[in-house]
Amino acid sequence: MKKVHPIVAIVFAGVSTVAVAGGDHGKNVYANFPVTVKNYTGDKKTSESYSGQIARHALHNSLKKLAGKGNGEANPELEAQIMAYLEGKESGRAIINPKTKGKFVVKQTTIDEISKKKNLLGKTYKGSIQGWPGNMTGPEVLKFMAKKASAANGGYDPLTGYDYVQLISKFTMGAVFYNQAVDNYLDEGLSAEKKPNNKPYKEGAAYTGKEHVWDEAFGYFGTPAHTLKLTAKDVYNITKQKEEAFDKADLNHDGVVDLKTEMAFAHAYYAAGFDKGGKTDYLHTITQAFYDGRKLIKKANGKKLSDKQRTKLQGYAATIAKNWEKVIAEAVFKYAGSTYKDLQKLKATVESNGDASAIFRKYSKHWGELKGFSLALQTGQKNLGETAVKLNRLVGFSPVLLGNTQISGIDSDGSYTQKSSISIEEYMLHMLKVQKLMVDDFNVKARSNDALSGLGDLAKKLGSGKSAEND
Amino acid sequence: MFEIVFDYWSDVTTSFWDPKKRVFVGYLFSAFFVALLWLVCIKQEKLFASIKSIFSKRVWFSKSSKTDYKVFFINKLLLLLISPFLIAQLALATIIFYGLYDAFPSRPIVLEKSPAWAVVTLFTVGYFLLDDFARFYVHRLMHCWPLLWSFHKVHHTAETLTPMTVFRTHPVESVIFSLRSTVVQAVAISGFIFFMGDRADLLTVLGVNAFVFGFNLIGSNLRHSHIGIYYWRPVEKIFVSPAQHQIHHSLDKRHWNKNYGVVLAVWDWLFGSHHHSEKDKCLVFGLDSKDKDAAHSLRGVYIAPFYESFTVLKKYSVAISKKIAGFYKGLPGLQWATKD
């Protein structure tokens, strides 16, 4: 056997050590932040902690599945099951989604394995939801929708055009995840008095007040800890649980995907979806800001943040909030475009006396996504004012139904009331105006399903008119 | 700074490598072959003599042509700086599209049952006609309005014509051309997409409007040249021959304000400015000016038009104030306000 020169061996050993230290859990991974709490006596070696938020992601995913299980009859059993994921805190709740799918093996099977005693309703935005009939608060809207979903067939009510699966899911994303992150943790949570960095978050905790506040916001975004080492397409495929994405997700190569750190959920999935088109970089911009902010807190080493440090941290928070808002606005833009296209087909089918049920179903689904995201957009840090009024008026309380009617309110026994509304053609114009509103007020760039893409395509073909040539 | 230099250089080179541009090398080559065929086959000139004539030093290196080259480089830079402030055709198209929705809330889609090729042909022909007419009409205004003429005359001071003469344009005129193009494109795009949906499309060759490609391939660059290719007279009533455009540049008073058209001669015919080519007539190009050298200086190209336009504006304001004074004088009880 050939002998290895000692110098080569030393160099090799050195390189290997560096490779391990800077490897999977090295730079740019939202993990392995040291414990900085003074006089900490526990056995924890790292301080990042956001399992409660991931448990809520699993609750949300599971709730979405349950909302589509109704058979069209009143179903108290299903309603109770839905409420267990929405409002309950009981132990033993199974993770209905995400579950192991082929080679994409998921580590946890129950909510408790992620975090105990968590629910969604307790963290739902408490303000009034103007875009939904009935003048209800956020938790009331979710409960109302959940009840309706349990009695609908597959979560869909053809009489109103409501797809509760989509409505519940997208509204929850806004009223819980987005609202908690940007309106609570990244807003009041960063004040000097609230959750200071020179004290543990709670007695005996391995993390300081500010560390945990920041981690909780990161958890609600729902992106894998190693996002900065992944492409937007990787993150998108991880949520889809594509087999080829498993190795990308399994950061520590233990053969399972840990939902707590290696899975992508909710807004991170949508950000990745838009970014993979190549026009935007929301996912990495937001994750980088989270990572940089967390490094800043770590650097304070358990001391109170100075005003300068807090200002810098608020700068990162502003980047996160701004880009997160854009992600939701992009989703509103996208589904306004889908709804517009569905309406085009619906109009053609009705005019030719064809069977409109399949296209109406699709229209309802896309409208549900549009409505859910447009409500979500209004649960952020700032009051959208006139933009919210315009958006709610354009989208309405329901899709325009085939008899040119729309839901106008909810009566005392919880039934919907309808009144005559605009035509399908006029509603199509509303969808275009929704897209324009997202461009004008949020400067969205990905613009999926742009209903006016034909204009842009033709403009591109004709070329720029900017020419200095004489004829 | 580096970005501007890069953009500038890319803009300059694109002019010769992009088939959407008039002086794309492919079109310059085709123009050369068309000119050669004309001289050898129709004019029965010798091959070498024809080549020598096409590349005449007297034309390509004249004072006038040298100015064209300088203006080309300077204008590219100026337009690069101005263009961000000009409205994009897409922005205007979107505004018009929403305006159409307000006017026709039911958005009637026409030709839904027609084959795709018919819709594409209709858009391509429609856009071509609209664009060619707009070019004709704006060109006509450039000659008829003294204020615009003070800028457009820069193009007409050229005494030798080469394909690069298309760039001999005052920046103010460039802005007007850009706006014209923007408006035409926006109207065509929004109108066709609104009434025909996303089926409206452009028929292209090498990514270029098929009509523009054809026009450039058959020698559009010879419009600005000394090769007087003319067509059969009935054809010249429909299409503008290179010789007809050269007449537009002629110093002869008989030729003034004639042949404004670009591709189609029918516009001139309809508006009474049509003039047939004059077989083998030796034309003198340029303007009747006392100081011809000044017209080829950069001051003459860029500054003088502002002086001239200022003089025109002064005349306009005097005329307008006289009219206003006349109006007030006519009102009873207000005579005291005016003074003869």
The number of helical runs of chain A is 16
Q: What letter string, H or E per element, gives the SSE order of chain A?
A: HHHHHEEHHHHHHHHHEEHH
Mean pLDDT of chain A: 93
Total helix count of chain B? Answer: 15
- Strand content of chain B is under 5%
Uncertain spans of chain B? 336-340
Q: How is the biggest beta sheet of chain A arranged?
A: 2 strands, antiparallel
Strand sequence of the main sheet of chain A, in spatial order?
Answer: 1-2
Quaternary form? heterodimer
Measured distance between first and last alpha carbons of chain A: 82 Å
Overall residue-averaged pLDDT value of chain B: 92
Topology as H/E string of chain B? HHHHHHHHHEEHHHHHH
* Beta-strand content bin of chain A: under 5%
Short précis:
Chain A contains 16 helices and 4 strands.
Protein model, in words:
The complex is a heterodimer of chains A (471) and B (340). Chain A has 471 residues and is mainly alpha-helical. Chain A has helices spanning 6-21, 51-67, 76-86, 111-114, 138-151, 164-185, 209-221, 232-239, 246-249, 266-275, 282-299, 307-351, 357-377, 386-395, 424-442, 453-462; strands at residues 156-157, 162-163, 405-410, 416-420. In chain A, the strands form 2 sheets. In chain A, strands 1-2 form a two-stranded antiparallel ribbon. With 340 residues, chain B is mostly helical. Chain B has a domain at 2-223. Helix content of chain B is 61%, strand content 1%. Chain B has helices spanning 2-17, 25-42, 47-54, 57-60, 63-82, 89-103, 116-144, 146-156, 171-196, 210-217, 233-236, 242-248, 266-271, 292-295, 298-330; strands at 204-205, 208-209. Chain B has a two-stranded antiparallel sheet. Chain B is globular. The model of chain B is unreliable at 336-340 (pLDDT under 50). Chains A and B meet through α15 and α16 of A and α5, α6, α7 and α9 of B.
